[in-house]
Amino acid sequence: MAGNTIGQLFRVTTFGESHGVALGCIVDGVPPGIPLTEADLQHDLDRRRPGTSRYTTQRREPDQVKILSGVFEGKTTGTSIGLLIENTDQRSQDYGEIKELYRPGHADFTYDQKYGFRDYRGGGRSSARETAMRVAAGAIAKKYLQLTHNVVIRGYLAQMGDVCCELKDWSQVEQNPFFSPDSDQLEALDALLRGLKKEGDSIGAKVSVVAENVPVGLGEPVFDRLDADLAHALMSINAVKGVEIGDGFDVVAQRGSQHRDEIRKEGFQSNHAGGILGGISSGQTLTASIALKPTSSITVPGKTITRQGEEVEMITRGRHDPCVGIRAVPIAEAMTAIVLMDHLLRHRAQCGDVTHSQK
Amino acid sequence: MAGNTIGQLFRVTTFGESHGVALGCIVDGVPPGIPLTEADLQHDLDRRRPGTSRYTTQRREPDQVKILSGVFEGKTTGTSIGLLIENTDQRSQDYGEIKELYRPGHADFTYDQKYGFRDYRGGGRSSARETAMRVAAGAIAKKYLQLTHNVVIRGYLAQMGDVCCELKDWSQVEQNPFFSPDSDQLEALDALLRGLKKEGDSIGAKVSVVAENVPVGLGEPVFDRLDADLAHALMSINAVKGVEIGDGFDVVAQRGSQHRDEIRKEGFQSNHAGGILGGISSGQTLTASIALKPTSSITVPGKTITRQGEEVEMITRGRHDPCVGIRAVPIAEAMTAIVLMDHLLRHRAQCGDVTHSQK
Amino acid sequence: MAGNTIGQLFRVTTFGESHGVALGCIVDGVPPGIPLTEADLQHDLDRRRPGTSRYTTQRREPDQVKILSGVFEGKTTGTSIGLLIENTDQRSQDYGEIKELYRPGHADFTYDQKYGFRDYRGGGRSSARETAMRVAAGAIAKKYLQLTHNVVIRGYLAQMGDVCCELKDWSQVEQNPFFSPDSDQLEALDALLRGLKKEGDSIGAKVSVVAENVPVGLGEPVFDRLDADLAHALMSINAVKGVEIGDGFDVVAQRGSQHRDEIRKEGFQSNHAGGILGGISSGQTLTASIALKPTSSITVPGKTITRQGEEVEMITRGRHDPCVGIRAVPIAEAMTAIVLMDHLLRHRAQCGDVTHSQK
Amino acid sequence: MAGNTIGQLFRVTTFGESHGVALGCIVDGVPPGIPLTEADLQHDLDRRRPGTSRYTTQRREPDQVKILSGVFEGKTTGTSIGLLIENTDQRSQDYGEIKELYRPGHADFTYDQKYGFRDYRGGGRSSARETAMRVAAGAIAKKYLQLTHNVVIRGYLAQMGDVCCELKDWSQVEQNPFFSPDSDQLEALDALLRGLKKEGDSIGAKVSVVAENVPVGLGEPVFDRLDADLAHALMSINAVKGVEIGDGFDVVAQRGSQHRDEIRKEGFQSNHAGGILGGISSGQTLTASIALKPTSSITVPGKTITRQGEEVEMITRGRHDPCVGIRAVPIAEAMTAIVLMDHLLRHRAQCGDVTHSQK
């Protein structure tokens, strides 16, 4: 099975390269009768869009999404939804010089080895530009989950380099270009990024996603656990090298008496598990984090080889973010929404409608 | 799609509960003509088997696997392989007292909420006993990968509580009950576990898996990347709360100039990526780590509620490991093997036989 | 994806060869809380079982099915159900002489070409013995459909050679060894089969399946239409060479004014469509028919070649039915049940519970 | 799993309604490096296109397909291929009057029952207009199969009403508006259709597909047999009510001694099986036939009800073919190509490259 599809019942299949004609996707399995407009999708696309601040790539794409099918008289029909974003600002001339070499840290080498050649324009299919369609598809899931079950899915920048951001205030997240929930760290983030721009370098990031009001019972034993499917979806985002659910790697040093979330009549007394027990949602708030590597598209010279095996030094020209993690926030939210939506439908198929039981 | 299957082309579907009649699985998609005997599977089953040391549960199961189909005259036929392990030491009477309550940190609550009732005997389907079949199926993948491509997949205990084990010596791993590659830490591990046993508590662990000689080109853009599928497979192991590929969460504080693995004629100069670039194997050594939570099956009393909502205190009786992470080593190897095998077949379908190109 | 699985949400995966240790299957996706015992499955297995009349193979298998998992305290748990039938009457010595040659009309040649070798004992995996597990799995679907939606699925012999059986009386079907609903043709059928036995020849058959009380709305546009999935399931039965829905091939000579089923307040005025419109169930009675070829296992000598390409004549020894179509009745019912069950769950996932609005 | 995808490894996912903005599809799993242009797809689209003769609907659509991704410098890249056809001649005003009633023989009733409402413009998603994308996707499969294995897939009209067309001359098929291979029947076909036009009625048809040079070994036991997957693909075409492989329903009256295809050194001596044995291609010519019902879009008045249950009489205005079977020829070819392509990749995954062995 080729890899451009995610989800079993809520299925998203995407196509498109960084500098091709258009990006698109098909969203299948959407329940009928849900109000849906292009504006519903555009909001998150705008949050992800490049060129919105001086910290992100200056590629300017309006990223205007069109709904081509599956919606009639303002409501979903239950049939497949086709979405399209045309590429308008392609500047593929920028990329001619990397045609014959493998940028270190990029997929150039592996695509070439796998397929025998590659679309070298801006990374082709391996470019994070592809994630625009994930955001568009995820927005459908987000809307459905919100509308029918009041599920709220939000992400934020938890760390960039050594600067940690605490989840102090959700309203802050949309008010600064870093998606930081911690206004006390805005200056430190700004200083870090300005320094990196000067040096032509980049930095990694940690992004967290929080889903509230997740119905209890989502997730399928034993392989398609909710956490396993989340790990798959989040790890599939470009540049991600690690995924945590709940306390994540902190559990290595925890004791059982400390980690287990005790239960009282009024609900769970803590949430080390991050809202998932035995691979099934517990009704508690779902929490997940991802680690994003620093982009290799930097102007610090790097050693590599050409397709012919000749050793060269290179720098990456063009428009790039010093911290790709920033724009990953809406993508991580979208992937979380897609997984939850899929499992909501899977649960319904076998067990009927979800119940909002005690927490 | 119900969740008891993993893999697209190399497909493993399992069944069985902790205290049911038997565990079993069907392995589909195995290439024909591969020599295979029950002994090939038994080796890893014995490594995972409980009751082999004083640190693991004293439940004694011979875990003798039978091949019921798909092998003829010592070779795989290309048709589905049925595997069976009968449960012999079930002692379900031990579990009567937890019938009506939700053990904190376990799947009791979520299974009950999802399905309306549950097999309460030893966790039923949510028990890690299910992983025996993963190990058996993984052994087929391991053998195929080793035989045809010389791929070697090995795991080890990287950390338990605060005790870190360095990968000093692979030969050590099979010589101590902790799967530790670091003989200098055996005493510390022993002391830690003995202390926990006395206190009736448990501890988390970090397990790492290393796959050598992985062919270049495995992994499918954009969702079914090799790392995404590994994350899915590893996160689906009981108790896992985090997955890392290569440098994992360390990348958050790294710079691009530091993280990117430069390339020279003789190959990559470092391996921060853990052998995967753009979701596709690079031919470098694949490295992944998982975080395993401390088991909640402890004798330190814990607060919980009954199915009827009454508040109670409970302790877990029965036979349990103070560190479930130890026995996760062969399971993590098996899941890695299953994913690599699946992607080898997927690659072959679309791109033909893999090539062992430069590293 | 290997081919031993059918269904998306109600998933059946089988294993086992004609003369292997055992046959088995895993049924995944069964809703929880459904009463289920081995006796529920045994009834249809007994209907399919060989050796029950002088017209069917004298191989005597009790075909006793065991439920190994997924049922607790008499009810399905929602987790995967493992089923097993041990092979007891294998007599593999009968098959030694066909080891080196390709029986004409059998899968010997194609299996050998595909896999490089084959399990030659009784056809190995290509034997219709495999269908026992379909019948067992289908019995679960049948029970669920009957219990929850009062769906009744029944099959009958519609034709054997030139002898046509009309659907005169359902109660007849279980009272004669031919599954004939037409008592007026029992003598003709008997005479036909006795003649064939004498000649050592075999004959084709047409089997029809009727499903009543099918909820309206089952089936997914555009590829996974209910009729398309039925065609897949029915054509996958050994020896089937044709599938019809409703009027089937008779539509070639029909006019639109004649074929379309007109609608009045009280419902459809006819049922040329066989209960499916646009790939979706209409709530009318579902009707399908299959054509089964005459078995090639006959004692009339036939020309073939050996694996080495040498030309030989052969006859098929052993125990074989002169009309394999007879025993296909419970198999066709089972496949129909599996498809309907799968689509019931798929419908529920996306559109919620079905409505009985049949008109 | 929603139903808009076909294939496991060669995967086609479609979207689009009869009168929506556009039709599109994503073709995933195409091997890299295959030369592909829009012209490759346009040829079959033109063969299927309406408005090409006085016998087919006068809706005039250029059906110009655009390749949006997955092709770079004239060759497939191995990543997903996005295809788009814009709807230009929609005339949705024609359909206002059927908004509130259920056309008999159409999917209006079932879509409404399934989804709660429907896109009533020209049948919405249930319209055969959707098949344009199948033809486009199938053309990719056709090209690949032809290029790499010299497989030739061709269809023809075998019967319309009572007029039977023999396969006398392949070159005739593209030279008459009926896809008839039998020039002796052209007048009879013309007379039949002219009579139907006058009466405002329609007629059914039988279409056959022939695939030559199919490699031996394609097809997966036991459910995903080549014939079963063909039956699924062909039955999923609008208006199809029956599928036959090889001799099809004629086998009911055949004897085993007559049906089995004997083998000699030079190959099979006959082809009753239609090129498939045990669900696996034998290397013989593959033959399949389908029955297409007469369209219900006729001007003979018919009885039906409105959505509110009121009884009415209706006739279908608009542009419709008296025999929809005619245009099914390229669609049936496309579906056959998709299935063969999928199984070629599946075979390669497990068993390596196909061999053209003896026949």
From TrEMBL, chains A, B, C, D:
Broad enzyme group: lyase
Binding site for FMN: 125-127, 238-239, 278, 293-297, 319
Keywords annotated in UniProt: Amino-acid biosynthesis, Aromatic amino acid biosynthesis, FAD, Flavoprotein, FMN, Lyase, NADP
Cofactor note: Reduced FMN (FMNH(2)).
Pathway(s) annotated for this protein in UniProt: Metabolic intermediate biosynthesis; chorismate biosynthesis; chorismate from D-erythrose 4-phosphate and phosphoenolpyruvate: step 7/7
Binding site for NADP(+): 48, 54
Cofactor(s) listed in the protein's UniProt record: FMNH2
Catalytic activity, reaction form: 5-O-(1-carboxyvinyl)-3-phosphoshikimate = chorismate + phosphate
EC number, as in UniProt: 4.2.3.5
Superkingdom, natural source: Bacteria
GO molecular function: chorismate synthase activity
Listed InterPro entries: Chorismate_synth, Chorismate_synth_AroC_sf, Chorismate_synthase_CS
UniProt cross-references to Gene3D superfamilies, sorted A to Z: Chorismate synthase AroC
Function recorded in the entry: This reaction introduces a second double bond into the aromatic ring system.
Similarity section: Belongs to the chorismate synthase family.
Subunit structure: Homotetramer.
Name used for this protein in its record: Chorismate synthase
The species this protein was found in: Rosenbergiella gaditana
